[in-house]
Amino acid sequence: MNLAARLRVRRDNKRPRTNRALQEAINSASSPALRDELLIIAQRHDLLNR
């Protein structure tokens, strides 16, 4: 397996954990402004629907 394929596999394996951590951060945000900011960043990078 070449380097590009290994990086794709590694990236695909990390994505669910990242999304779960992001979702937990959004759900436990200490203020509505922080929650909104996290949602904007997640939407900008298309992170919530993967």
From TrEMBL:
The protein's name: Uncharacterized protein
Originating species: Actinoalloteichus hymeniacidonis
